[in-house]
Amino acid sequence: MALTAESPKRSHRISGASTRAGQSPATQDSEAHSAVPRWNKTDTLWTLSLFGTAIGAGVLFLPINAGIGGIIPLIIMAVIAFPMTYWAHRGLTRFVLSGKTADSDLTETVTEHFGIKAGAFINVLYFLSVYPILLVYSVTITNTVNSFLEHQLGITPLPRWLMSLILVGGLILIVRMGKDIIVRVMSYLVYPFIAVLVLLALYLIPSWNGAIFQTFDPAVAAQASGHSLAVTLMLLVPVMVFSFNHSPMISSFAVDRRQKYGKHADAKTGQILRRAEGLMVIVVMFFVFSCALALSPADMAEAKAQNVTILSYLANHFDNPIIQWIAPVIAMIAVAKSFLGHYLGAAEGFEGLVIKGANAGGKRSIGHSKKLSTATLLFMLITAWLVAWADPSILGMIETLCGPTIAILLFLMPMWAIHTVPALQKYKGKASNYFIFFMGLVALATIIYSIVQAF
């Protein structure tokens, strides 16, 4: 999962909005009943932007959780991946489109429908959906580099406390020194990363074996994963939510398309989302299945225990120079890219919460300042470093922190709104709504399951 991208062709937004502003009510009514506008270049740009944003380093963990339970969870995931991803993002898009004004973003729409406190809650929720991901990538970059040094270079890594400090501190220093350059470079790296995933999946085809098909026997699958099929599927859902997520981009996407298409925005955003999610699911599922067929559930369990990405495990598993050297390098680039992107989002969210919290007191008004920027840097550095040093389970963090938090914002809140907000009543009662709400509850259930397991 990557950070939000810039809206394609902002000039189209402005010109589209200004044209409708000058239309008479009769013209607007006629437009509302006319055919949906034809597909154009900006629709293609948004499709590629959403597709590229969704595929990031988070995909490198999905094959592990999907393959560890055997073939049945893989088949179920292949069946539900598209509807789950498409309906969830469409629901959030429709929620943003339900705002009274054409430029109402997610927070403004929440405030409009649910009040100021709910708007503030969404700001907190957004921060909590980005910040834990930064912590996940702090652990991941440390483990990926350590694995590369030890297995590919034959070098004993530095003590973990020092290595994690160097890596996390170095990445934060890079993004603080050149924010605009970093954002531009990240946007250029998205599609080469996707191409490498596809090529690696193709390269693994000769290594496909039948080990995973033995898990049609539930007893064999349970022995490999350590869980029953039901628990395995439950733990897979938040990882799917995490890996297929591009919700941070939905607000700007919905606003942009609404300003261009007006009352046709729902139909057009649906078209764009279907194509973007279709591309994403095809690429990700091909990569997941190729990894699962080239390894075994026991291998996936070992990868989870080693707390590394699937690329690092592949590099250490196969006696193949190409995979041994290319896979970990690609993993390091992907994780570093995702870390930098989520640092920007987490830092902006943290500063926004501090400013709004301070101004809510009414004593004095504060804004962005050098002191606040320094405090944010220190908070991010210290917390990310300590978590990377502690080396908690990466998939455990995704299952109990990242996935459930994203699910509240992406799965539960829009479905609740559809059944309570008058502007969204026309979407009420559809089976897809209940499916998405159920999947959101399953993602949240992993938190309860983890607490019960801890005791």
From TrEMBL:
It is found in: Cell inner membrane. It is a multi-pass membrane protein. The keyword Nucleotide-binding does not apply. GO terms for biological process: amino acid transmembrane transport. InterPro entries: Amino_acid_transport_2. The chain crosses the membrane at residues 45-64, 70-88, 120-138, 158-176, 188-208, 228-255, 276-295, 322-340, 372-388, 394-413, 434-452. Residues 1-35 are annotated as: Disordered. Keywords: Cell inner membrane, Cell membrane, Membrane, Transmembrane, Transmembrane helix, Transport. Its main location: membrane. One of its GO terms (cellular component) is plasma membrane. Residues 16-29 have a biased composition (Polar residues). This is HAAAP family serine/threonine permease. It comes from Rothia terrae.
